[in-house]
Amino acid sequence: MTTMTDTSNAARFREFKMPDVGEGLTEAEILKWYVQPGDTVTDGQVVCEVETAKAAVELPIPFDGVVHELRFPEGTTVDVGQVIIAVDVAPGSGPAAAEPEAPAPAPEAEAPKGRQPVLVGYGVAESSTKRRARKGAETAPPAAAPAAVQAELNGQGTAAVPEARPLAKPPVRKLAKDLGIDLATVTPTGVGGVITREDVHAAATPETPAVPSVPEPSVEAPAPVQAPAPVPAGARETRIPVKGVRKAIAQAMVGSAFTAPHVTEFVTVDVTRTMKLVAELKEDKDMAGVRVNPLLVIAKALLVAIKRNPGVNAVWDEANQEIVQKHYVNLGIAAATPRGLIVPNIKDAHDQTLPQLAGSLGELVATARDGRTSPAAMAGGTVTITNVGVFGVDTGTPILNPGESAILAVGAIKLQPWVHKGKVKPRQVTTLALSFDHRLIDGELGSKFLADIAAILEQPKRLITWA
Fold first, then answer.
1. What are phi and psi of 88, to 5 degrees?
2. Residue positions annotated with a catalytic role
3. 171 and which of 84, 290, 335, 371 could share a cystine (Cβ 3.0–4.6 Å)?
């Protein structure tokens, strides 16, 4: 029995809808289109980059064909479930009329067996939202045939080969866009011909370094530098739309500040012995291959202090009027990125050895700097460390990360005069600040917790005796 192929518009056109690439997110902004009408696409090919309230994500298309229409331009915020691109999956079967208003959705069964979704929320349920007609919209142009057929012939009768797309990660592409740099003109220095942030900065200011040299701080944390966009001559102000990650941060901080009653306590501590321990660990063969810095010891000290003061590792459940005690620690590390402040966390940090914790911190930092932190990595945190010392700041009053009840701010470690064994001597000193939710952490518990962290940093051997 022979089945006739349906070449009608309804069968020819497949539509790709904005998926939920996070955890219940409702919208995303289209940052960059990697294809244009007439381009041939294949199953799994990345067609655009979008930014949600949590991260930037590249979207692959789940079928083959030729791009017929891009429904939204770059910079548009699109609701989850809206069609963002239409693809002609049967090119060459005749002239393509305007696509149907509501073509039948493609069943999931058409996906190749064994193929796993590459995005959270891939294959979302159909939305009842219908696309509104755009004012002045014209009939869509005919879909182009495959590149091999449509390529214009040069003088020798061979098909013109399109230039290869420059290789670069999404944050690097956004940086280039912000600076007005064409990636095709940038010389890559990364492995495999990948364009790095440094390459873009070099292309922007080839005769001077893009980032001024700054002495390395004593406590390290991810703090990549984002070059500011050029300001037109004579401009008196610049308006920056609040959306994506920045919008989510603002809403979360306002909600946290006006929901949980914050209390902040401070302690200044001599960390000279901690700094000596860090120097010794760097030479330890068991720590080979991982990055050792003061933040590692501070994180371990916090984990030991939580073990001694478990009431800190809890959260207030307003809806059920309960205090939820967590018996695990997902340790958040506040990270400054070009897209704003994010707080990825190390899952089950309490179970990790010192070398494992060092590896987890290194991976977290590298991922944040590359802009590859996933929404899942930022969910489920129980307590956070924010390192303001990396900016040379002595201390601060941190705001709680939503869903948590304590956050520790670490100030800069500086050589200061200190009374040690009855004499004034130069010692390595820092100031710690602990903000906590006073609904469930009273002054006694908060003070004991902060004092324990300080005591460990003053005498690191307590990492063993108190563990």
1. -85, 110
2. 438
3. 371
